[in-house]
Amino acid sequence: MPLVSPTVDTLRAAVDRSVGGAADRSWLRLRESTGPAVDLADAAHRRAALVWLNAWGCRLRYPRPGEEDVFGTGLARWWARHHPLLPAARTPLAALPETALPALVSAFADLAAMPVTPGPRRRTLGPTAASKLLYAVRPAALPPWDDAIARALHGCRDADAYGAHLRLTRSWALRLLAEAGTDEVAFTTALGHPGRTLAKMLDDYCYQVHTRGFRHQPA
Description:
Elements: H1 8-18, H2 22-34, H3 43-55, H4 70-82, H5 101-112, H6 127-137, H7 147-154, H8 159-180, H9 184-190, H10 198-211
Helix pairs in contact: 1-10, 2-3, 3-4, 5-6, 5-8, 7-10
């Protein structure tokens, strides 16, 4: 499929189709249980993140009684290593600096390769769940993806493709804001969804177009 950049109209239509669904409801539950921001140094937040990932279709096994919590332990180690290098919590996608991208690509690669189950044949988190967790901890700056989005836009789901996805969606955000002549808060409010980040709106667009095959027909 050729690359089609979002316009204000196609973005609004995609977001309108996405708002209020099961994904939004599970996101609200995550935010209610983790306060203003997800802090993966907190065991309760790591558990809430696992529940949320499964609500978003990741199908990660919960540890059985007496079993090692491989997911929780690995996530705590990942957070301790990469948290200091993440953008500030309020940094929007359009303001994500190029200098931040190498650290984000490294964080994504380590997270995707993180084991999540015990035993000799351990399952890793994988690239889709890794992108979703990065979105959970930095929802203003880091849009998630799924397999269909990654392959349609970048041909694969590796770390380099994740970096390319950040650059692409950032370029979309910058163009949309420049055309509107406003900031993100005013832009998302004008589209009728105040409080929804532009990073999430662009994910809504990618999901509707590349995963669901939505084609907007202007009125």
